[in-house]
Design brief:
The protein contains 41 helices and 18 strands. By secondary structure, it is of the alpha/beta class. The strands form six sheets. Strands 11-13-14-15-12-16 form a six-stranded parallel sheet, with helices on both faces. Helix 30 runs antiparallel to helix 31.
Length: 857
């Protein structure tokens, strides 16, 4: 068989090429190929089937199935997606070994290219409308086959589906595999996530593993005592009044006589009765149950599959585009439009129902208009299909269905925790639900009922809401007249949590206590929300106190994507009547100015913090930021100030001493004294186990690439929180790229700098993209491409090349001087002209692509 499969692959590859097709991928014992010409595809299929049948397997010809369909598909990453691809696969699955089937559309478009025989209209296992199929005649091969393996060949009552399923192939296969090993599988998930559609698809896929598939819709069963009656009616049996399955009951005999897959759809409102029925089936028959519910049945033998939302970058977009087409609108899912669609899908959490409702609005609103109105999604997402269940015609109705099944205590906890942004901890939930007796039990129930998601990060448990559920909870919070109180409690919890950490840890800037570091990164969105709510309520004092104590988030560069008017405000400073609070706020504001590269503002705010007599150790932070800002305009004055601060500090505070040593190094580097800068960084690293990687950059500039490689060991050992690990990976990869470039180990340099650029895409600290692009200039220099070095440096200078790291500026300056020694002023001017208006992100992406292409070669 191994030999035969190798011949099979060779035949298919050859035939597809000869007929002008493209072989996209192999699936182990099959392949997917595409053709521009339907006639060529049919000719290729006949020729391939004839040649494959000549392959001998133990005296028998190798017989394979083939299927063809024609239509428009979505092409991405050298692959095809969409309903036409899935339908082609289902046509292939309906064939028998040696048989070639094609859709009516394909045959009609191909004309008289090959001889065909009609085999009738069939429902395929994609459960869509029937497809009229034709069998291709292969000369010299049998033309008589058993009936087509369509849904019609099996006993089942699966509903006809009028739209394709997107982004669920892996889930369908995994659930089908679960059903082979377990007799009760329950699909759970938030309302509208597609549990029913997925269960129906699975039922179609596993038909040949069961004697029959029975679909039972329970949404209309208001009384749980009528559940067994609903099952009997779906099976075409007389309704039984028996409470349990027994030998006298027709339904019992039906389930016991054969191996049947019973799909119980929408069990959540009759959960006890559904669980009892499934338990009886497992105990008294050979049948299997596949249930859908917003909550598990919780009986022995159950396997739960949590249905995930669609990926906003793939399946969700495909679904949106398809449903928009149903509304008569053709969307171009490429370029900027695709990014907009991905953003819409992400805001809607990839929930199929929400996507379908939004897509139906494209008949009247552009995608831009839809995106702008998603903040009021419960008004926007209405008007679903008239034939849909009432609770699925609006997103509001779907969530109402879930909400009404909660206890009053669960409803209270759901609306209270909706004040959190980006997730929350048990401690946070307890703070905003202090009037609830057992918060943990309520949270557990909400997780079980698919309204919360529980996650573990670095050993810490956190809860998360889908955005649609969170907005629904906030609407309920307003309706209960609890919003103001909940937000005020949330603000107090954020401020109390920040205050519980040592200010020295938050202001040291060098190394964070791990718990504080993790908390800051995890609660970033809640810190921002608390500040914004305080401002909305006119409480600038609370806003400023939170902003000052969130200084660690500013230092990490993850507090705000942009400066949204929180820092450096005179009215906030004035509202802080405690000089201590005002000074802390000003230091945080100066650090924020540093993070966006506004060094003039950084200097002004640092000086104001010192004037307000910033308390220890905040005064050291203010001085260090002032030295850093002065380094850009007056390195001599910065050196003097750093030395004075070091003398005043003394030896008792090693971390703060190391901070001032680093700032003194900043001034030395900006003055062009790299040797002194390197010595000061070395002394700082010897003082505390910390490194930002500056030594490695300086060693490369000074020509010691072996030393640069050795220096990165300490970078990888520090700041090992999730954010710190990303910083360490970014900085380590960059230094490796520089060192390998200097050593002429170019492939290793390319790999390291690709990793650097990838980390930049994930790392929220601003300005690091400039460091990464400067490192690519070093690679270009080692490759001998001086013109490209000049162009990269010109792009950087057109945007202001300064970063938060003077060592990186020294790197830029080093290669600028090298270029000036090799190119004329006119050539450099031409580089600057070409670089005008070019973004750093586009240039970085181009350099990364260039490095990848070089590695492939």
């Amino acid at each position: 068989m191994a030999r035969a499969l190798a011949q099979h692959d060779e035949v298919l590859a050859t035939v597809v090429r000869d007929y002008g097709g493209r072989l996209l991928k192999s699936t182990g014992d099959g392949c997917l190929a595409v053709f521009d010409d339907p006639a060529a595809s049919l000719g290729a299929a006949v020729d391939a089937q004839r040649r494959v049948c000549e392959i001998d397997v133990d005296g028998e010809p190798l017989r394979v199935r083939m299927g063809m369909h024609t239509g428009t598909a979505i092409e991405r990453d050298d692959d095809y997606f969409g309903p036409v691809v899935n339908r082609a696969a289902r046509i292939m699955s309906a064939a028998h070994g040696g048989q070639v089937l094609a859709s009516k559309l394909t045959v009609e478009l191909a004309g008289k290219a090959v001889d065909t025989v009609p085999v009738g209209s069939h429902r395929l296992r994609d459960l869509l409308e029937p497809e009229e199929l034709f069998q291709l005649v292969v000369p010299g091969q049998p033309s008589s086959f058993p009936p087509v393996r369509s849904l019609d060949a099996f006993e089942q009552n699966l509903p006809v589906q009028r739209s394709a399923l997107f982004g669920a192939e892996a889930a369908v296969a995994a659930i089908a595999d679960l059903l082979e090993h377990h007799r009760l599988v329950t699909l759970t998930g938030v309302g509208g996530v597609g549990k029913t559609r997925l269960a129906i698809e699975v039922g179609g896929r596993v038909l040949d593993h069961f004697d029959a598939v029975l679909f039972v819709e329970l949404a209309a069963v208001a009384d749980g005592s009528r559940l067994r009656e609903a099952v009997a009616i779906a099976a075409g049996l007389p309704a039984s009044e028996a409470a349990d399955i027994d030998d006298r009951d027709p339904l019992s005999g039906f389930l016991a006589s054969r191996r049947i897959l019973v799909i119980l759809d929408n069990c959540e409102h009759v959960l006890d009765e559904a669980a009892a029925f499934a338990d009886d089936v497992l105990a008294t028959s050979r049948s299997t149950v596949l249930a859908t519910s917003r909550e598990a049945l919780s009986i022995d033998g159950e396997r739960v599959w949590r249905v995930a939302s669609l990926d906003p970058t793939s399946g969700a977009v495909e679904l949106f585009v398809d449903r928009a087409a149903s509304a008569g609108v053709t969307l171009d899912a490429t370029g900027e439009q695709r990014r907009l669609l991905e953003d819409i899908c992400a805001q809607l959490d990839g929930i199929p129902l929400a996507l379908e409702l939004a897509a139906s609005r494209t008949a009247h609103l552009s995608p831009h208009d839809i995106a702008a109105r998603l903040g009021d999604r419960f008004r926007l997402l209405t008007g679903g299909r008239r034939t849909a269940r009432q609770r699925q015609q609006t997103l509001q109705a779907t969530l109402d269905w879930s909400h009404d099944l909660l206890t009053s205590e669960e409803q209270r906890v759901l609306r209270r925790v909706s004040v959190f942004m980006g997730g929350f901890s048990l401690a946070g939930a307890e703070a905003v639900t202090a009037d609830t007796s057992d918060v943990l039990s309520a949270l557990s129930a909400l997780v079980d009922k698919s309204l919360l998601v529980v996650e573990t990060d670095d050993g810490h448990t956190r809860y998360r809401m889908l955005e649609s559920v969170r907005l629904y909870g906030q609407d309920r919070l307003v309706a209960a007249d609890e919003a103001a109180q909940a937000r005020a409690t949330h603000c107090r919890w954020v401020l109390d949590s920040l205050s519980s950490f040592s200010l020295e840890d938050l202001a040291g800037f060098l190394a964070f206590e791990p718990t504080a570091h993790w908390w800051l990164a995890a609660e970033r969105a809640n810190v921002v929300a608390a500040m914004q709510w305080a401002e909305d309520d006119g409480d600038l004092r609370t806003m400023g106190r939170i902003a000052g104590r969130a200084i660690g988030l500013v230092e990490l560069g993850v507090l705000l994507d942009e400066d949204d008017g929180i820092f450096g405000r005179a009215d906030v400073e004035a509202a802080l009547d405690d000089p201590h609070d005002a000074a802390i706020y000003l230091v945080a504001s100066a650090l924020n100015a540093n993070s966006v590269g506004d060094f003039t503002r950084q200097r002004e705010l640092s000086e104001r913090a010192l004037e307000r007599r910033a308390p220890f150790p905040m005064d050291i932070g203010a001085r260090s930021l002032l030295v850093n800002a002065l380094s850009t305009v007056d390195p001599t004055a910065a050196l003097t100030m750093a030395e004075s601060a070091l003398d005043a500090l003394g030896p008792v505070e090693p971390r703060l001493r190391a901070l001032l040593l680093v700032r003194r190094a900043d001034a030395a580097i900006m003055a062009g004294d790299l040797g002194t800068g390197l010595a000061l960084h070395t002394e700082a690293e010897d003082t505390v186990a910390w490194s930002g990687g500056e030594r490695g950059v300086l060693l490369h500039v000074l020509g010691d690439d072996a030393g640069a490689l050795a220096s990165i060991e300490r970078v990888a050992l520090v700041r090992m929180s999730s954010m710190g690990s990303l910083w360490a990976r970014y900085r380590t990869a960059m230094i490796r790229g520089l060192a390998f470039s200097g050593m002429g180990r170019l492939d290793e340099a390319r790999e390291a700098l690709i990793e650097t650029a990838t980390s930049v895409e994930q790392f929220p600290m601003r300005l690091v993209d400039r460091d990464a692009l400067t490192a690519f200039a070093a690679l270009a220099w080692s490759e001998g491409d001086v013109a490209r070095v000049s162009y990269i440096l010109a792009v950087l200078s057109s945007h202001g090349i300064w970063t938060r790291t003077p060592a990186a500026f020294a790197l830029y300056r080093h290669y600028r001087e090298l270029v000036r020694g090799r190119m004329s002023k006119d050539e450099i001017a031409a580089s600057r002209a070409r670089a005008s208006g070019v973004s750093i992100s586009d240039t970085l992406a181009a350099e990364m692509a260039r490095a990848r292409a070089a590695l492939v070669r």
